[in-house]
């Protein structure tokens, strides 16, 4: 148990810089795009941007399910267990993409709207979840230990999804008020860092701990975000 928590803490500290850099890049992209939209459509443009969040959130679910499924299947060939754990990746994605951003926006005094995609649009989320699980099974040898895949795709998409939720559901002031830049960065980093590490590190390590203790020829993994 002690070694497990040491591994989790080590991974959290290792991935924090990547999360900060990805969040800064995502903020720069969203800020540039948002300012151009404000010039065209005025300050009410944010409510029209829900479509962008509904592109990135399913993509995030898919990427998270791929990573979690690939890691677990690589080290424990039990398909039902792997499917169930892959399905659980939808929970960290929900925390990352709308629960933490909603709470963060409200803490910062913004009139945030809580939009739960899994309830409001299950027909949009579930196919991407299934695609991610299937891809994790098919490509586990390539993806189980791919830090480039995880860092480059997953973290950036998660950062962008959290930012677009803020913009789409009530918080556009940070685009025009520099006082909100650091608070928004803090919300996005928290939204990405903790839930994504939960999905990609804590859940696979916890699921594989018992399997690894029984002397598998493959070592229990050191998952990457």
Task: Summarize this entry quickly.
Helices cover 76% and strands 0% of the residues. It has helices spanning 2-41, 50-75, 79-87, 90-107, 117-120, 122-138, 140-143, 147-168, 181-212.
Task: Characterise the protein shown here.
The structure is a single chain. The protein has helices at about 1-40, 50-75, 80-85, 90-105, 115-120, 120-140, 140-145, 145-170, 180-210. It is mainly α and about 220 residues long. The protein has one domain (about 50-210). The longest helix is centred in the first third of the chain and has 40 residues, at about 1-40. The two termini are about 20 Å apart.
Q: What radius of gyration results from the CA coordinates?
A: 18 Å
Helicity range: over 70%
Poorly predicted runs are: 213-225
Coarse structural class: mainly alpha
N-to-C order of helices and strands: HHHHHHHHH
Overall mean confidence score, pLDDT: 81
- Overall tally of structural domains: 1
The main sheet comes to: none
User: Per the principal axes of the C-alpha atoms, what is the gross shape?
Assistant: globular
**Secondary structure tally, helices:** 9
End-to-end Cα distance, whole Å, is 21 Å
Number of strands: 0
């Amino acid at each position: 148990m002690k070694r497990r928590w040491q591994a989790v803490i080590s991974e959290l500290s290792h991935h924090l810089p990547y999360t900060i850099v990805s969040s800064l890049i995502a903020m720069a992209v969203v800020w540039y795009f948002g300012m151009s939209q404000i010039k065209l459509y005025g300050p009410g443009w944010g409510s029209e941007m829900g479509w962008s969040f509904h592109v990135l959130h399913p993509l995030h679910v898919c990427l998270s399910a791929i990573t979690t499924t690939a890691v677990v299947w690589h080290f424990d060939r039990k398909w039902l267990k792997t499917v169930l754990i892959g399905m659980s990746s939808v929970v960290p994605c929900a925390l990352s993409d709308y629960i933490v951003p909603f709470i963060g926006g409200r803490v910062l005094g913004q009139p945030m709207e809580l939009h739960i995609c899994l309830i409001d649009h299950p027909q949009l989320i579930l196919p991407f979840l299934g695609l991610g699980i299937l891809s994790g099974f098919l490509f586990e040898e390539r993806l189980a230990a791919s830090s480039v895949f995880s860092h480059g795709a997953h973290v950036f998409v998660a950062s962008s999804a959290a930012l677009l939720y803020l913009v789409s559901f009530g918080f556009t002031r940070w685009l025009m008020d520099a006082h909100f830049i650091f608070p928004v960065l803090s919300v996005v980093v928290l939204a990405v860092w903790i839930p994504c590490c939960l999905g990609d590190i804590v859940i696979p390590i916890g699921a594989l701990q018992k399997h690894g203790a029984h002397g598998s020829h493959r070592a229990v993994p050191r998952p990457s975000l």
